[in-house]
Each structure stands twice: as structure tokens, then as C-alpha cells.
Amino acid sequence: MGVEFRQKGLVTMIPHASSPVKKFGELSFEEIKALTPDLTLEEAASPFAKYFYEENKLPQEFEAIANGPAMNVEDAFEPWDYAKHMNTDGYCRVENGYCVLKSGIAYSAVMIQQPGRTNEKMDAYNKEFAPEGALAYKTWTPGAHYFHFTDGAIEDFGYGLLHMHAIFDEDSYCNGTDVTKLGVELERVKENDPRCIWIGGNYWEHFQVLDTRISDQMIAMLIVNYLRETKEGRELRIRIFAGVGIKDGEFIRTPLPKGYSAEEIARYHMIHLMLEYGHEARLVNQFWEERQKSRN
To answer: Angle formed by the axes of helices 262-295 and 119-128, to 10°?
Structure first.
């Protein structure tokens, strides 16, 4: 069961389930291989399709990091030390970077500014944006997002298709990580960092979509979101720990994807988050502005 810290009434991104609605495991290998990140005829006919075709590239401030070397491992931390480094009123020495931890876990860090972000904007975006097919999910990260299940997804982090299963609570979508296992003391979060409004973790079990089958080798990943209020809106600090998960309250180690080094995986994950959430920060504001204009 997932446990998170969340400010009362907080609204964050809730990915649309693609249509036709499916659960993880309901698509065959042949159906998965037939999926495309391009728009279907139905999706292309949507008035929201214009957002998909806008250029989605790394923000300039991230280009040098994405093309540069790995960060010093001393500036990263193991998942069980998460709270000690994150739930403070300051910042980590490196907020955008990647490396391989001493444990062998692939570590990725990204910080995204969300200027103008409000509950009202996010509520409208979650309910109204791009309801056709898989358009909302594809538009979130064009070229990398294929299909979203009610409890998982098909997407490409840069090293091939992944059949992704989100382990989550029915009452708290995609919140499958008990953040107290990461050292977070729920009753002390605001004392440690008054600006913090959310600490939530997603636990994913990935399976590589290989040439002849869907792999039966499970690859675990923890994605932990740390959200703060700022004068300009919100600030999202994300950490991915790949090759590790939490089962029955205990950390478990799993393999990393075949054919890539741990450092390559960490870098791919960092770049994916930079594109995904950098685009989302712009997309939500653009949708809101055009929505408001159409109502005036």
C-alpha cells in the first residue's frame, strides 16, 4: 500500500487512461508492437492535436547536463536515505544529474519549475485536455508515449518499448510507494520544509518489449516526486531509482534493462524526465491561457 504526504486539496497531474480503456496485461505482444507514438486519424482530427505537433525539446538549461558526464556519486544518495537529503528547507548539491550509486542502482535527478501552477489549472487540465484515444498521453511526451492503461503504460525512455505496470492504491492513483520506507516522517514534513506540499512515490514494474515476446524479466523502478510551493507557482524535484523497488515493506533489487549499462539507463531516465515534465510545465499553462481566451 502506498503512503504519501499531500497537502489537503492539492491537485496534481493525473494521466488519462487511453481509449479503449485497458488494464496492464490486456494487450498482446502483437497489439503492443502495433502501437505507435504517432496520432491516429481520430486523434489527429481533435482540436487538441495542435499541441502534439509543437516542438518538444530539452530546455536550454538542461542541454549541457544531458550531454555531459555523470555527476559525482557523493552528490547523490541511496533510496533509503531519501528523506535525509530531500525533506529539508534547502536543496541537494546536484538537482539535475545522473550516476550509478554504490549499490549499483541507477540514479536520476531532475528539478522542474512550474510557473503559474495552481489547483484550478490542474483540475481543468486533468478533466478537459485531449480526451480522444491516447492523445493526452502522447502529447505529454511526443515520440515516447504510446498508450496509458488504468494501471500502467507503454512508453519508450530511449532504450526501447517498456510494458509498464504501476503498482498503486485504488484510492490514490499511481501512488504505489510508501514514502515512510524512504525515511519520510509524515508528521514532520512541514516542520522540516514549510514549502513542501507533496511527497509521493510511484512504484513501477517494467518488462522490456523484445523482438519476439514481452519479457518476463521484471525491472523495478521507484519514482519519487517532491513538490514545493514557490512565489512563481510550484517546483517539482524528481528522483528515479532504477533496479530497486519496495515489496512487503522491504527494498528489493532487480536487474536493469538488457543491453545497456547502469549509467546509460540513469542518463536516459534523466533526459526523459526533463522532456516529459519540462513539456508539461509549458503545456498546462498554454492550455489554460487558450481556454480562458475562448471563454471571454
So the answer is: 90
SS3 for 147? strand
The secondary structure of residue 169, as a DSSP letter, is B
Cell of 71: 555527476
What is the per-residue pLDDT across 251-290, written as a single tens digit (0 to 9) for each?
Answer: 999 999 999 999 999 999 999 999 999 999 999 999 999 9
pTM: 0.95
Q: If we measure between CA atoms, which residue out of 109, 46, 113, 45 comes closest to residue 280?
A: 113
For residues 201 and 237, give the distance between their C-alpha atoms in angstroms, rounded to a whole number: 12
DSSP E strand stretches across 30-129: 97-100, 106-115
Read off the C-alpha cell for 250: 522491504
Predicted pLDDT at 173:
46
Quick count: other Cβ atoms within 10 Å of Cβ 68?
A: 11
pLDDT surpassing 80 at residue 6: yes
Rounded to whole angstroms, the Cα distance separating 40 from 48 reads: 13
Q: Return the SS3 of 141.
A: coil
Q: Which amino acid is at 242?
A: A
Predicted confidence (pLDDT) per residue in 94-122, tens digit: 999 999 999 999 999 999 999 999 999 99
Assess whether pLDDT exceeds 90 at residue 250.
no
Q: What is the pLDDT of residue 172?
A: 44
Strands (E), the chain: 5-6, 97-100, 106-115, 145-149, 152-156, 161-167, 196-208, 219-229, 233-242, 244-247, 250-253
